## 1
Amino acid sequence: MSEPEKGKVVRRIILVVEDEFFIAMELESVLTRGGFEVLGPANSVHQALELLKSQRPDAAVLDVNLNGEKVTPVALLLRSWGVPFVLASASDPAELARHDVFAKVPNLGKPTDMTRLVEVVRSL
């Protein structure tokens, strides 16, 4: 998070990676109303990595499967930076548990309870 200017409220920056357009827009809207600044949404691994070249978020909300591509490279980069993230994915919990980068990460599932999402992101 950048240094706040005197008298300005600093909003935490949350990366959103989601390939389904309407879900991405809902995530952006809910997080913005929850007091966060949204980085993205990115709809692919490539787009997310490009966004991360210019800005480091405070936390992230990731879908695991992006048009047949796994979000693993993004999750690994975030983890290497110490940036916490939560999953909003319909992926099978047993499948997620087989991947070290996802094994202990909260998965809010799909459809995602947006009130719970904001609570979890606030706790990251």
## 2
Amino acid sequence: MSHDAIVQAASDSDGGRPVFVLLLCFFLVMGVVQVVRPQLLWKANSRLQRGWVRNPEATEPTSKGYAMNRVVGVIFLGFVIWMLVQQF
């Protein structure tokens, strides 16, 4: 098998690309929420703590914790945008 045939076979899409792009768009929205309103993500996840933690409200991050969430969200957004650009 020639090198060109191997490259062609490796680059053929099996139809999974649109699903991957849709998943990346979902991650993009989650990253925007993490940067703009990280409190919404905490509220959504605090419900999952009810069986594990006595007082889930006591686990709310401080303002520094939310600031760190925003920093991580910006890094995450950069990574997701880079992956989306690589798809096209």
## 3
Amino acid sequence: MVAVLAAGAVLVACSAELAQPQADGKGGGIGGAQLPEEKPRPMDVELATSDPRASGGVVAAGDQDAVYNYGPTVMRDGGKLRMWWCSQYGSAQPPGDDILYAQSPSLDGPFTGPSGGGPAAVFSGAPGGFDGMHTCDPSVIKVGSIYYMYYTGAAGDHALGNSIGLATSPDGLNWTRAAGGQPIIGPSHDVHRANVYGAGQPSAVYLDGWFYVLFTDTTAKGAGWNGAGQFLLRAKDAAFTRGVETLGEQGFIPKPSTISPRTRSLVDGFSTDLMWVGALDAFVIAHETETGTTLTFWTRDFSAQPYRTAIIPGAWKEGPGLVRRPDGHAPLSSGDVCDRVPFDVVRATIVGGAGAPTDLKHFGLDVRGSRACDGDARVRTSFEGVAMPSPQRTIDLVADGTLVRVDRRSVAATLASEILDQRLKVVDKFPQAARLSAGARMVRAPGRGFGVVLDGKLFAVPDAGTAALNDSAVEQISDQAWDGFPAGFPLAG
């Protein structure tokens, strides 16, 4: 189904255990030391760009009878690129939009299915559910050992029929609907306009224990006359049942649920993608404008715009998918990690014979002058969540401005958002806070989640997958017992 949002058109959704709460934000300097008072951060800084790039042709396409391909989410996961996008296979029942999956060692493709053949349909409608006909617009992140897919779902081609659902997976291929198969975000119904799309086109990021979702809502008070606008929610759990906050004019505001007036739009557009860029200490929203994909930057609290927009030029017909780490953060540069940040997108470039976007191609460039290694605060922000070899043939994880030495690489992979093959000298200034040895004591409290006890302190971990890989038995404890431990810091996110 066509994903372009035109006023007056009735449009459909085209274009387990969840991670537990963790600490909000990370303050202080290296090793938790108090930072000296800094000068106010400059705003509206112009970023230099270089190394523009584009694929020579289409990088991914559904086979069988697929006639459209758009709305990708792209993850750099280990040594491969993984992509999920919206298409339709006649063999995938029920009839309607399906989410396809393919992978490649290169952004320039070709992206193929898990076994090397054509892309696989991994998620389709659930008859009788809110997403009974259409599942589209995937946004996939990974926290710990669990993949989370936020998607647009619709039961049919009905006005205001689109809502946002959530599914989980151990591998990114086999998905289970969360929240009892119910939508987790729906239209606000603040204002009914000619554009009766509803709510959809989600983009998710995990940062500092918060799940963020940016999305379209054509009924929001803050949307434009044509329904354009992007709205932001965050919560302490993936299904948005705890600690829900909505972004308003004065910042984040606690709300009892995801349905509340939506008054503040971050960009005027549809089908966008969100990413946290540690090297720039900023969020970026990728959205399509006349000449290509525009990159709009916001501070961590969305109170100001620290950089001027940058543009990834080239043809487009539908929203971009940024190439991101599993947690939705920007990957480090393969060249100069202290100066460069890569921005790459995959996007549909033509309207095909079916009248819908297709021909997914890769475009990108580098931003220079990130100053990622300038000063303790920026170094900490830039490399948080990154793991790399230690001098002792183990793995060092950068967490809370310190190093946590992890005996097993497989365990580090559940905690780190990116594992490097070579050590960065810039992290040698971080003190070692703890060592996570095989078989370390792990606990679980019903209202707190999972944790590992290191040197008498309790450090939160995302889920039971870490314990299994570490050969650690999980001890059930009470919330009161959890709270009695000296607190460490979260070891993921």
## 4
Amino acid sequence: MLKSIIMKKILSILFLLVTLQLGAFAQDTNLTFLYINGSNNNDTKMKDWYIKGVNKLHPVMIKKFENNSTIKKWSKDNKLVIEEKPQIFFWGYDSKTDLDFVKERLDISKAYSSTLAYEVRSLLTQFMHDAIWVQKTHNMLPILDELNEDVKENAEQGQNVILFGYSAGSFVTYQYLLYKMPYVNLSKLFKVLNADEEIQKLAVDNPRKDTCLSALSYDKGNIGVISNTGHLVLNQNKEMLMENYLKMDEITDKYCAPKDKVRGVVNFASPVPLFYSDMADKNYDFTFYNKYLVKYVLENGIYFLTVNFREDPLGFPSSKNLTNQQIEELLGLKIENPTGVIYDYSSVWSKRSAFLAHTSYWTARGTFAKGVVKAFVNGTKFQYDEKYQNKVLKKKSKKSEV
């Protein structure tokens, strides 16, 4: 009888240990890769092409991530496990009506244009229309709201996300960060905009959590009206503005990205600098917000990576790679305890021709996934490994002397 009791206790302990061990290895997945489509994906055939490409790429991307020691450590430190199934955010059909309008005009031109002129015009329509369409603010903002709902739904299920923006999809990821990340301190913003003293005092005495640009707009928090250039005109009804300010925490929760759930962005085949070159203009209002977005990204451990094939004619480098100190000097802002990374790797060799490279991120998926991992690793080292940083800067210095 005694032996039987002892044996049962031993078996119970062994069962408990095995269960705990299996639980440690079988951590639920909690990191979703969310892929966003680019131009020329607005019919069933091209949507299927995009989805098929993502489904082939995603397992390769997971494998490259999980086999890299730097990313393994990052995942372990942040308790992240990649979801096996990719998610796709598709905005292609939104532009179809406008594209059909252009194609009708294109057909009219066929009657009097030379074959070459018509074919060139047709090719430009095919590749450029959606990129131009989605760049327009009135088309972009509803897409950002829809994407944010997806991100929030993932967050409610315990999922973090990394956004992968392909081609014109990189416009969506960039604008998502600009409009939806909670980097706007209202008290400081009221001061910069020289708001009424009573409003400034209200903000100081009744602090609200940081919010996002999207939440300020007249159709949401109604703090003011944001122009296409980013200029914010405060609500001229003082009482309404004060009342709306006090409700901003609720509005922020509804319309801004959930804090600490967007872990990164990977833009690829990205022509962002070509379409958003006005960000270089110091007098452009969005430049002011962009500075605080960069500060937010770096202070909140977000990875903002650009990865392009060197042969891709539409793959533009997002910027020079800068150290945190150089970024501080450029922004004129102090970055507190940075852990994020902003890094460009636009020299990935795909071994594809210039005609094929832009659509080859799916077929050359091993090369592309390896490039993303390399951007993650080298970006981390460049920002936070002083020895590696000095080595790279020294190499750049020698090149500039030639």
